[in-house]
Amino acid sequence: MIDDHSLKLLNVGCGTTFHKAWVNIDINSIHEEIINVDIRKGLPFEESSFDVVYSSHVLEHFSIQDGFSLLNEIYRVLRPNGIVRIVVPDLENITRNYLSSLDRVKEYESKENVFNYEWMHMELYDQTTRSISGGNMANKMLDLTNGFDFMFERIGYEMFNAQERELINKLSSIQMEKSIYIFGAGTFGQRIEKILSKHSLYINGYIDNSTSLIGQLVDNFLVNSLHNISKSAHIIIASTWWREIEAQLKEHDFTNYSIVKTEVEKLSVPDGKLEEVREYIQTQLGMDYLRAFDEGVFRNQGEIHRQMYDQYLLKSILLKTGFVNVSKMNALESTIPNFGEYQLDEINGKVRKPDSLFMEATKK
Hints:
There is one protein chain. The chain is α/β, with parallel strands linked by helices. It folds into three domains: 9-89 and 310-363, 3-Layer(aba) Sandwich (Rossmann fold); 92-152, no CATH class; 162-259, Rossmann fold. It is 38% helix and 19% strand. The chain contains twelve helices and 15 strands. It has helices spanning 64-77, 91-107, 111-129, 135-142, 148-155, 162-169, 171-174, 187-198, 242-251, 272-284, 287-299, 311-321; strands at 9-12, 23-26, 34-36, 50-56, 78-89, 180-183, 205-207, 217-218, 221-224, 234-237, 257-259, 323-329, 346-347, 350-351, 356-363. Strands 3-2-1-4-5-15-12 form a seven-stranded mixed sheet. Strand 8 and strand 9 (221-224) form a beta hairpin. One of its GO terms (molecular function) is methyltransferase activity. InterPro entries: Methyltransf_11 (IPR013216), SAM-dependent_MTases_sf (IPR029063). Residues 33-84 form the Methyltransferase type domain. It holds the Pfam family Methyltransf_11.
């Protein structure tokens, strides 16, 4: 085990999960703490540069051959006795849960059993077969009025968008408030209420501008008018009308509020040449060829799963790369010193991606 406290740490394919103590790399990131690197072309670091390399939910997006090349690069940049921690979806766990849900729904078609079966079928196939971003799983996750606990048990914080995760990061400060209200009694507001309750944070009620809702119970919480809420209350805005609601709060001298926006801002890079090609295909070959082209472009952008790993396969490929001491871990254990402080595999003590397989090994 490494004892040095001044470790060189590398987070490969970090996405939105990173820590400033690490060198964080990903492709097309707009965050200042992340270095833009196309890891398909190798790692731009000298041999034996790092004590630890961490990579979560990256390897499955590569073919088995390209994944092996990436692990070889990780091995190269690690120092002798350096630690690698690889996190991937756990194929064994997914298939066992699928078979279990199938047995239950065949025995009794309750609403819960049907939902759980449909989710496990999607979890097994959707991320390898989808042709649009998010696939069928994205639509299922939008409505948290059904199957919330089961989806959270399966995929954890992946079911929340960036704005909702930002709210989760603020929970420790919000917990200090004496009273909490959600402005927005619709589906989105109820979604936020469930997120809060998952962290043992309970609201006093909803606020809504609709006179037909005021005084009614929604999700067992009373819907209030803004006029009968104390100025000291913390208000969480959860509505597509968040701009108008924020202006309304300011007009009534409310200063203690948080906003969970529904818009998802994505980095888009205009590609004039791509559009020229699409236009040519559509005019010369027709819509069927254009749909095939668009699907091909999507499937090569890195979202889909090209390989799935169980404990045996991942251990085998790590050993083949040259690593030793290959061990299965859980989200809360690691041979990396002080790993829990970085909150990479957990948030506030809860596993970030519960469907994962956690493996560590060392460079001999």
